[in-house]
Amino acid sequence: MSNESILLLISIPVYTLCILFELYQNHRKRTHHYILSESLMSGWFAGLGILFDLTVKIFILGLFYWANQHTLFEPSLLRTHPVLAWVLVFFAQDFCFYWLHRTEHYSRFFWAVHSNHHSAEKYNFTVALRSSVFQPFYRFLFYLPIAFLGFDYMTIMLMYAINQFYQFFLHTEMIGKLPQWIEMIFATPSHHRVHHASNIKYLDKNMGQVLIVWDKLFGTFQEEEERPIYGLTTPLNTNNLIKAVVSEHLKIINDLKKPVSLKEKFYYVFKAPGWSHDGSTKTSEQLRKEQVLKH
User: Fold this and answer.
1) What is the dihedral of CA 130, 131, 132, 138, to 10 degrees?
2) pLDDT of residue 229
3) How far is CA 32 from the centre of its chain?
């Protein structure tokens, strides 16, 4: 049995117990952090994400094997210095995840996929299961550079799985702010609540998976201040699984029907979500500038 399979066997009961405990706390304190239809949809999204992940796995294994045959360095580090190798893979994977995640927020083409994960209006552990359904078809591209450094696919993806296991615990309102030294270095539930909020000041912030330092280095960090309002800026308003998965793609198609230039059609697909040729909709940066001018 692979290490990834072992981690999966461990994670399923852990996730289940955490969700049940949060449900119990939700009922006991009447906090209203759960909507049954949303939680069920999160489960469906998780299942679809796993299905697509398995669909492309053979192709990705072959691609990473090819990359390992054309490495920039001799890939003997895992054998001679395994601890150092694992530390390097951790930092490399977390760094690449940041740029994957940032791309999903700043390019509408990728946001159309990732918006699935942000569509829940209640914030709880089941949101962690609400996968970006089509992400397996491009996620590997962001991790391919690590393979060119000599690290194999299984090692990279195991580290990804470990870091995703960590990120599950960020999707809750049960945990407040943690000690300052933790908040300075690591992504925390407080940071991730900001990430899932639709408040203008919170949009497209805190992309880190395990480390929050990338956000602080590259200008996407935002402290949790005002209470987060969760969900998309334009609510999903559907419990239909298929419509929920493709809702943003359909919006792109509608925008491409507008009588605009080829360049503007390109922008509608690849520029930041909210970009429009006539200013009828706005990006997160434009909304923030407007908010500053109003005050």
Assistant:
1) 180
2) 96
3) 24
